[in-house]
Amino acid sequence: MLNQKEILSTIEMIDQQHLDIRTITMGISLLSCCDPAPKRACEKVYEKICRCAERLVKTGQDIEDEFGIPIVNKRISVTPMALVAGASETEDYVPFALALDRAAQSCGVNFIGGYSALVQKGMTKADERLIRSIPEALARTELVCSSVNVGSTRAGINMDAVALMGRTVRETADRTADRDGLGCAKLVVFCNAVEDNPFMAGAFHGAGEAEKVINVGVSGPGVVYHALQAVKGQPLDVAAETIKKTAFRVTRMGQLVAQEASRRLDTPFGIVDLSLAPTPAVGDSVARILEELGLEVCGTHGTTAALAMLNDAVKKGGVMASSSVGGLSGAFIPVSEDEGMIAAARSGTLCIDKLEAMTCVCSVGLDMIAIPGDTPAETIAAIIADEAAIGMVNNKTTAVRILPAPGKDVGGTIEMGGLLGSAPVMPVHRESSAAFINRGGRIPAPLHSLRN
Amino acid sequence: MNAIVTVLGQDRVGIIAAVCNRLANYNVNILDISQTILQGAFTMVMAVDVSKSTASFGELKEGLNGLGAEMGLSIRIQREEIFNAMHSI
């Protein structure tokens, strides 16, 4: 039987601690849309997405109304587009991105992910065409998100693809320079990409997934932060227990919403993603949780250890609360989307090297980090290679979503608005990595015995 | 279907009467009421049965929100499942 205290604590979490469902994402397979005629294939893509997801937004709003829990985003992920477009006799893949954008606008969702290619071991012609079309596709669409997987623990790292992605990120920033390089906020480079991730910009509907599926991502840094205030100064195992209990509650709510959405949309339930996803709002920050644990500013010595504990406790608490956990599941550390991270980066305490260390112990990677606009493509590729190496060796997903700030240098800020937030431009090393990147080839898959 | 109505705000004469009246107009049956003054704030939690309600859930929510706005209170209605999910295994 419910008691008044429990009911009021839930309401306080929603009202004052920013508890929400971050996203309901419908994954849709587009493999049935392959067609030798590109125009026909684009029509099929548009029709199938609209047919599958026409009730997604309305259903999300209904659940929001009835349960009184905000559902911030309703989104769609689709089969990696290189697999679909590869069947068409064309070299121009931009019309496929435009079809995705139109479908997303018609359904009323706020992002669609899956303008993607998986090239960890090698690139097909279709993969290469898709990657080369990314800058134009992201400049000409509003809601399309793109991702490319360049490495995996089993395949190693495709360094030719890494070099190409360095140039692609650069070009994407240049093509959207009038909007502070916004295109790069919708482009993720992965190692060990997962097939059921509901979060953007890296969501795509993997080839091993069902026809359509509902995945849900929860949120709750504010709730964890608030819960930790009740155990100030106590040992870290007490803090870990507190985080676990909070993560359990948050995830139970995600599971309920996922099941309800799955039933109403007559679409199988896929996974709940346990990630702690921050927003730029004050009180909804992962950095502030780390500071609550006793660090003066996020990024100082001890940050990696604190984050490792937080990340693990979130998973332990969440895993029992859901019948199926997947996606990225961990603490996110996107700089521009986290008020505390922005402050720490501005103060100079949080630097890219420290962020890289932090990504060894949490999901997902170097995320939403602004760098000087004149950073060479090879340096960007080298940043991607470093991050992919961490993922490859540690058997985890890592990603790079980096934002070259057109015309700006350290001290400047780029503004993207909404959930994407704003990012202070952070310094990168000026010494060249070009000769390393220009070697190309592959970094072989790592040995998984003799572990040290 | 059961739902939870919560009313929070500054205490004044007639809050319970107004909320109960509004629920009766919608043919919503009240199963349980618990009311207290928590740190100076009027706090009421009601369990209600909305299965015979004459209004849809959305209309109920709008109606109660409207009443809350008139009286300077926060009044909300949420399906019971969300609280069960979060607080019981």
Short description:
The complex is a heterodimer of chains A (452) and B (89). Chain A contains 15 helices and 14 strands.
Quick tags:
heterodimer, A: 452 residues, alpha/beta, Anaerobic Ribonucleotide-triphosphate Reductase Large Chain, 2 domains, twelve-stranded mixed sheet, two-stranded antiparallel ribbon, 15 helices, 43% helix, 17% strand, globular, B: 89 residues, alpha+beta, Alpha-Beta Plaits, four-stranded antiparallel sheet, 3 helices, 4 strands, 37% helix
General description of the model:
Chain A folds into two domains: 27-191, Anaerobic Ribonucleotide-triphosphate Reductase Large Chain, CATH 3.20.70; 218-439, Alpha-Beta Barrel (Anaerobic Ribonucleotide-triphosphate Reductase Large Chain), CATH 3.20.70. In chain A, strands 1, 2, 3, 4, 5, 6, 7, 8, 9, 10, 11 and 14 form a twelve-stranded mixed β-sheet that branches. In chain A, helix 8 (221-229) packs antiparallel against helix 9 (236-264) and helix 8 (221-229) runs parallel beside helix 10. Chain A has helices spanning 4-16, 38-53, 56-67, 81-85, 94-107, 125-140, 159-175, 221-229, 236-264, 286-292, 303-319, 339-347, 352-358, 377-394, 434-438, and strands at 21-28, 71-78, 111-118, 144-152, 156-158, 187-191, 212-218, 269-273, 325-326, 365-372, 398-405, 413-415, 422-424, 442-443. Chain A has 452 residues and is α/β, with parallel strands linked by helices. Chain A is built from 15 helices and 14 strands. With 89 residues, chain B is of the alpha+beta class. Chain B has one domain: ACT domain (Alpha-Beta Plaits, 2-Layer Sandwich), CATH 3.30.70.260. Helices cover 37% and strands 38% of the residues of chain B. Chain B has a four-stranded antiparallel β-sheet with strand order 2-3-1-4, sandwiched between helices. In chain B, helix 1 (15-25) runs antiparallel to helix 2 (57-71). The relative contact order of chain B is 0.28. The A-B interface holds A 2, 4, 6-8, 10-11, 62, 65-69, 249, 252-253, 255-256 and B 4, 6, 8, 34, 36, 38, 43, 45, 47, 57-58, 61, 76-87.
